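Suppose a colleague, Dr. K., hands you the sequence of a protein chain of 221 amino acids and asks what its three-dimensional shape might be. Before reaching for any lab equipment, you can write down a predicted structure in token form. Begin with the sequence itself:
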Amino acid sequence: MFVRKSVYLALLVVLGMSVVANADTIGPNCATCNGATYTLTYNPTPVASDSTTQTFEFFYTIDVNGFNAAALGSTVYLEAVAVKPSNDILDPSTMAFAPGGVGDWSNPLITGSLNANACSDNSGNAFACAQAVSLGSFNQFTVGTSKTFSFGLDIRMGTGTLMTADSIKAEFVDAHGNKIGSLLSENITASRSVPAPEPTSLALFGGGFAVLATLRKRRTR
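The predicted structure, expressed as tokens, is then:
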């Protein structure tokens, strides 16, 4: 009985680790969404902290399947993105992953806002802003086709300043760097995300079922 209860407990722990929260999504019909949809999630456990600062992981996803700010078949580029989860964003905030690779984007992130000239607004309304270093296949899409851009942002901020009612931005341009459509500037509620289990946890999960099956056979003999 003790062994069976222990196995059940282990399985429940692994199942709990595999839960991922459903993220809030905005678009495609918001005022500046350009027909695309945007999702923001974060890990509520800081990846780093000290006496005055905390760093949280944020995951920003842009699905351009319904993009409608240019003609079908047009080539468009995602030039820059920005996230504001705190009123006290600090340097250095960094990028964990990005379309093409972090080397294709400004990293560390620029502490500023995003305007028509990308991450160049230093008016004091600080976002964590990432700008593509060039226009290429990594940030390009064709209007009318399906593509998703995903960013992992490690954002450093003052302790206790994390907000869940956040602001996001994104800028799209043509091959000449001219802005296309609206500069996305919307509020969004960041949802908590819990990392899925690692392969070792999945192995434990499978092994637990094997143990339970063995115990059941012994019991029915």
